[in-house]
Design a protein that fits this description.
It catalyses: (2R,3S)-3-isopropylmalate + NAD(+) = 4-methyl-2-oxopentanoate + CO2 + NADH. By secondary structure, this protein is of the alpha/beta class. The strands form 3 sheets. Strands 2-1-3-12-11-4-5-10-8-9 form a 10-stranded mixed beta sheet, with helices on both faces. Helix 1 packs across helix 11, helix 1 runs parallel beside helix 13 and helix 11 packs antiparallel against helix 12. Bound molecules: nicotinamide-adenine-dinucleotide. Nicotinamide-adenine-dinucleotide (NAD) binds next to helix 1 and helix 5.
Length: 366
Amino acid sequence: MKKKIVILPGDGIGKEVTACGKKVLEQVAECFGHQFVFDYATIGHEAIEATGSPLPDTSLEKMKNCDAILFGAVGHPKYDNDPSAKVRPEQGLLKMRKELGLYANLRPIKLFDELLEASSIKPEILKGADILFFRELTGDVYFGERGRKDEGKTAYDTMIYSRYEVERIAHKAFKAALTRGKKVTSVDKANVLESSRLWREVVQDVARQYPDVEVEHMFVDAAAMKLIQNPRGFDVVVTGNLFGDILTDEASQIAGSMGMLASASIGDTVGLYEPIHGSAHDITGKGIANPLASILSAALLLDISFGLKEESEAVIKAVEKTLREGYRTRDIADANTAHEKILGTEVMGNVVCNNARMLVNCQVAV
Ligand code: NAD
């Protein structure tokens, strides 16, 4: 198979972890006889410094003309402490999602058994939890009308959804549920918000087309509580942009660390794959970032964009093997377990590559 992949490292640890994700893709191409052609594009703080724009047209052009994108993260302390900055790295992110029509963000939340003890939640509650989140990505308060009035003393952001926006992500969630546990939990705040009442109406309409899937509606506050109380009660979760943003970070604790969670942003064209974490200024340049979320994002890319299930499975199994052998980055190390071997970003990536090669009996070294 011949495919064109754009690597979009972005800022901070985005660069460090994406290098590992790319290496794994190269390894897969060698071992399975595929040809992946890589190109690089810029976004975020780095792009602002170079061109004045958080997402230059040249980057967007490359992304529109490739088969899949592996993204790192954007962000820089300069903007975090200056809310008045007019040009900001995350504007590149929002523009990219809008321009590429990436309306659905998928986040699989599954804890590797080897990390049960590393989570802040009790192992007996966590074991077996396997949730797939569908977070809507191009609507809600992030894109509604916003502004200030009363001479700047009052501010507002508008939560807005159209029937069409809810319908298309609901269909994706129900279709995914058919291939999994056949249950969809739709999360909203329909007891208070009009946009949530429309959300619930539309999900109920879509649900009628999937009689084999059980549907449950849950208010966001209850969902936040139940995720921690009984994560095994969820299969597929579908929710809006803001609620999804918050709930998926909460759910990241089920997986032990931000450094373990991958995500896919998809629409009707090219797919974009990225870790859920940000650019992590506190550890940038130290070589200690966990690359597994980027590597698992590469596995999602192989599966969803290219339909390469065996290759994707090989990468996931290589991550499992690496953890079983006791290798950890600092963020997932259990202070009580002496046998764990703490590795830096690059070496951890190399161990996963070697394990992938061993698992598929690959004789070719990259
Ligand atoms: P963050 O996800 O960057 O970091 C949160 C904490 O988790 C930090 O302590 C960090 O060291 C740790 N962490 C994150 N990823 C890790 C990894 N791979 N390995 C080990 N530890 C890891 O979130 P933040 O600190 O709130 O934000 C930092 C910057 O990232 C901000 O500028 C923010 O705007 C940006 N951000 C970008 C994205 C994105 O690009 N999608 C998402 C979230 C935050």
